[in-house]
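Progress note, sequence design subtask.
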C-alpha cells in the first residue's frame, strides 16, 4: 500500500510555464465518496485507472491505484460516475529540485489552476516558487471529488 502526502496551492501567475513540456489531458470521475474515502476512475494518454483513497492522517492518505482496460474506464465514467466529470491538463515540472504537478482545469472548473507537491512526510520542507499563491490543502472545496460535486464555475 502506498501513502500519499501532498500539499495544494493556488497558482497566481503563468511563471511556471516557461520552458516546460506540454501537459497531459486527464478525465476523471467518482464512483463513491464520503468524508474519509473516495473511489475514482481516470483516463489519460490512452490508459485507464481505478484508484481508492482513504484518509490516514492530517495530510496523509492511503492510495491504491490499478490500471484497468481503457474501455472499462470510459464506460464507468459515462455510466456510473457523478457528473460533471473532472477535466484538466496536468503539467509536471521541476522547480528547485522538486516535482510540482500543475492542474489547469477545463469544463465546469474552467479558470481554476492548482499546484500540488507530494512530500515524504507531513512536515516536509520545500521552497515555494514565486508563482505559488494561497495554500488550499485544508480547504475541501479544492479536492477534485468536491469539484465534481460543486464545480468552480458555480462558486460565488
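Output:
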Amino acid at each position: 500500500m502506498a501513502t500519499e502526502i501532498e500539499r495544494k496551492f493556488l497558482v497566481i501567475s503563468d511563471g511556471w510555464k516557461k520552458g516546460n513540456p506540454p501537459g497531459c489531458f486527464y478525465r476523471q470521475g467518482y464512483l463513491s465518496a464520503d468524508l474519509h474515502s473516495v473511489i475514482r476512475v481516470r483516463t489519460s494518454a490512452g490508459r485507464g485507472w481505478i484508484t481508492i483513497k482513504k484518509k490516514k492522517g492530517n495530510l496523509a492518505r492511503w492510495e491504491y491505484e490499478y490500471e484497468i482496460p481503457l474501455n472499462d474506464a470510459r464506460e464507468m465514467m459515462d455510466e456510473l460516475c457523478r457528473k460533471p466529470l473532472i477535466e484538466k491538463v496536468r503539467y509536471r515540472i521541476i522547480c528547485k529540485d522538486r516535482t510540482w504537478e500543475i492542474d489547469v482545469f477545463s469544463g465546469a472548473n474552467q479558470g481554476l489552476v492548482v499546484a500540488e507537491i507530494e512530500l515524504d512526510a507531513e512536515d516536509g520542507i520545500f521552497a515555494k516558487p514565486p508563482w505559488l499563491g494561497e495554500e488550499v490543502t485544508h480547504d475541501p472545496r479544492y479536492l477534485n471529488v468536491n469539484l465534481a460535486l460543486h464545480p468552480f464555475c458555480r462558486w460565488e
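The CA atoms of residues 59 and 154 lie 27 Å apart. Work on this subtask will continue into the next period as scheduled.
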